Hints:
This protein is of the alpha/beta class and 214 residues long. Helix content is 48%, strand content 16%. It has helices at residues 2-35, 49-68, 73-78, 116-125, 142-147, 170-180, 198-213, and strands at residues 82-87, 103-109, 132-135, 155-161, 181-190. A five-stranded parallel β-sheet has the order 3-2-1-4-5.
Amino acid sequence: MFEIRARLWSYFAPLIFLAFCTYAGLLTIFDLAIFQGRPLDILTYSKWRDAMFARAWLKLAPRIAAVEEDSVVPSLISSAYGIVLELGPGSGEQSKRLDTGKIIKVYGVEPNISLHAALGTNLVEAGLGEIYTIIPNGFVDAEALKEVGLERESVDTVLCIKVLCSVPEPEKIVGELYQLLKPGGQLIFFEHVRSPNRVSRLLQGMLYMSSIMI
């Protein structure tokens, strides 16, 4: 029975996320056109995509983090140590799980600047404010990383929680991340995977195509 409930939730959870994104998109368009007086920007998706995602994510992230409490995610994140490169910290729900006693410095690559205010607040609350640097560039931007001293074999831990599923060429990204690790360093990741169940795979494909359109 538990497995059936878990499977049903796995079907509906992405639908809920897509519904939130759709609703957030409508609110963002309305805000852009009416309150900001920039109706023509509606025609350019890239000008309101990040704001739309941030609006939805700020509502959903705490709920998702609560669901993950009984998973392996908290223990994975707390095992990070030394100099840490965190990809896609979002609003900081995962960053709060870092063990400050093991951390020297954290660099968080978050290209969505609409999430930076919430991220900064959560970092301060988690006691990470003074040792966390937000990098507002794309993932594995070599020049941006070099500016803060992150080069080949300079990182103890790379942290990727549900991030690689949303980047192009994840295999290439992972290869570049490994080059940043010191000898003996660790790459910690937790990711969505393709279900072994045929019906689930079909639904995953449909949801994936819907997410691309949104």
